[in-house]
C-alpha cells in the first residue's frame, strides 16, 4: 500500500487537489500548463477494497489508475 501511494505521489507531483469519487475512492488531480500554453492534467484514481464481495475475507485489493 505504501509503495503504491508513493508511486502515485511521484506521478501526480506536489501541487494537487483531492476529490472523492462516486465509488468512494479518491482522485488526486494536478493541473498545470505546458510550454505551449496547453492545460495538462495528471490524475490518479485510488480505490481500496477490503472484504469486498469478490475478495476472500483476508484479501485486500488496491486499484491505481494513472492518466494524463
Kindly state the mean pLDDT as a whole number? 76
Treating each run of at least 4 consecutive H or I residues as one helix, how many helices? 1
Give the N-to-C terminal Cα separation. 22 Å
Order of helices and strands: HEEEE
Numbering strands along the chain, what is their spatial order in the largest sheet? 1-2-3-4
| Rg over alpha carbons | 14 Å
Structural category is alpha+beta
Shape: globular
Write down the domain tally: 1
Tell me the major beta sheet.
4 strands, antiparallel
Q: Beta fraction of the residues?
A: over 45%
What share of residues is helical?
Answer: 10-25%
Low-confidence stretches: none
Number of strands: 4
Explained architecture:
With 68 residues, the chain is of the alpha+beta class. It has one domain. It contains one helix and four strands. The protein has a four-stranded antiparallel beta sheet, with helices on one face. The radius of gyration is 14 Å and the shape is globular. The relative contact order is 0.25. The model has no long low-confidence stretch (mean pLDDT 76).
Compact summary:
With 68 residues, the protein is of the alpha+beta class.
Helices, strands, pairings?
Layout: H1 2-12, E1 17-20, E2 26-33, E3 39-50, E4 60-67
Antiparallel strand pairs: 1-2, 2-3, 3-4
Amino acid at each position: 500500500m505504501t509503495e503504491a501511494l508513493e508511486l502515485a505521489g511521484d506521478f501526480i507531483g506536489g501541487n494537487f487537489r483531492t476529490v472523492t469519487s462516486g465509488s468512494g475512492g479518491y482522485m488526486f488531480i494536478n493541473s498545470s500548463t505546458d510550454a505551449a500554453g496547453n492545460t495538462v492534467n495528471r490524475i490518479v484514481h485510488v480505490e481500496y477494497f477490503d472484504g469486498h464481495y469478490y475478495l476472500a475475507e483476508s484479501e485486500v485489493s488496491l486499484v491505481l489508475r494513472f492518466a494524463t
